[in-house]
Amino acid sequence: MPIVDRKPRTFSGKPLVWLLCLLIACASGAAWSVPAALLAKPAASSPTTDPAADRDTRDKLALRLRTADGLQAVVPSVSNGVATLDGLVRDEARRKTAAAIAAQTPGVVKVENRVEVHTGLGTRLRAAFDLMVAKLIQLVAATPLLLVAVAIVLLASWLGGFFARRLNWLRIKSSNPYMDGLLKRVVQSVAVLIGVLVALDLLGATSLVGAVLGSAGVVGLVVGFAFRDIAENYVSGVLLSLRRPFSPGDHVVIDTREGKIVALSSRATVLMTMDGNELLIPNAMVFKSIMLNYSRNPKRRFDFTVSIDATESISKSSALALEQIAKVPGVLNDPAPSSVVKDFAPTGIVLQFFGWVDQRESDLGKTRGEAIRLVKAAFATAGIDQPQTTYNIVSKRASAEETAPPKENESTRGAQADTSVNRDIDTQLAAAQRAEDKNLLDSGETKP
């Protein structure tokens, strides 16, 4: 068998080199890729959101916006603590106020204000309507409290009227009818004012009370200037009531206006003229005018003049006239009738005679007329002639059959004379006094 001589095998290192190169290349790629992934910062994880917390924050913000003035149209939304405001407002100030309210709401970390300023008519009308609805809702909610406040005011008014009608309980009743009525009005007004203040305080309107009291001075000045004449007449009426220069039924002359007093009201003095007409004189004019009161003194003097011829005796004529005047019913003996020589002129002598009457028993005009009638009759009987200043010239001759008509002399007796008090306007005066329901001079007494 042939022997096969085999040549021994030798090991080559080239495959190992290639394997090492491959491993180095792979290691290099891994080195470039892995460190980038390993060295990169992990992304920040987003915070976890709580929808319930956002809803709660939104509700709180919405409630605060609804209660703010002019922000009812602002609609809030909250997401992850970020409050977004949408809607319309009337001015920039309200827009800033909405953002401030949102920033102060707990749970809000950021505010995004998308509110727009809109001054259109529709927006204003809509805002006014929303405000009106809100006020009506508040009014309905406060109805029970409002009823209690009204009841307090009515009770205060009733109590004021109750105590005003019973001032004698308070020991402030006045015998002056005018002041008595004024005190009644003051007591009732104070009671009503206290009731109103208590009612406003109950309704929580204390700021309104302060504003009203604070503006009372300004309002008083304005009203005083606007109604100056009315206030002047009212104050004059108070002063006239305190002074009481006349009483109902007095015969007075106020600034050339003559008549009898009917009543004194808060604005005017009511006068009944001697013609039977009703005359209203402002109290300010009555207070400042010259006043003549005939009824204050019951004794009143009358006078009249008589002219006699210059050839007649003054003493004889005066004595005869005074004797006739003293016979007139109603003429007083104290003071007694008197006379003076008023004038002595070429046309004759003028004698003036005086007499006194008691106005409570006799009428001045009637007594004076009767005195003149008796003096004329006495002068005619005694042959005391009037001044001969008029001449009658007869141009025809009277026949024998014609005789002058007899002259009728006045009687010197005064038994039939009427000197009673003049009652011509008494019926009208009494009717006017009864019709005057606010007679501030009426104290329950009637004047004869």
Structure description:
- The protein has helices at residues 14-39, 51-67, 92-103, 121-141, 143-164, 167-170, 177-202, 206-226, 228-243, 283-288, 314-327, 364-382, 426-435, and strands spanning 74-79, 82-89, 110-113, 116-117, 251-254, 257-264, 268-273, 278-282, 291-293, 299-308, 338-345, 348-358.
- The chain folds into four domains: 51-139, Histidine-containing Protein, Chain: A (2-Layer Sandwich); 143-226, no CATH class; 243-296 and 423-448, SH3 type barrels (Roll), CATH 2.30.30.60; 299-382, Alpha-Beta Plaits (2-Layer Sandwich), CATH 3.30.70.100.
- A hairpin with a 4-residue loop joins strand 7 and strand 8.
- The chain starts with 13 loop residues before the first helix and ends in a 13-residue tail after the last helix.
- It is an alpha+beta fold and 448 residues long.
- The chain has a five-stranded antiparallel sheet with strand order 8-7-6-5-9, sandwiched between helices. Strands 1, 2, 3 and 4 form a four-stranded mixed sheet that branches.
- The longest helix is centred in the N-terminal third of the chain and has 26 residues, at 14-39.
- Helix 11 crosses helix 12 (364-382).
- The model is unreliable at 1-20 and 22-47 (pLDDT under 50).
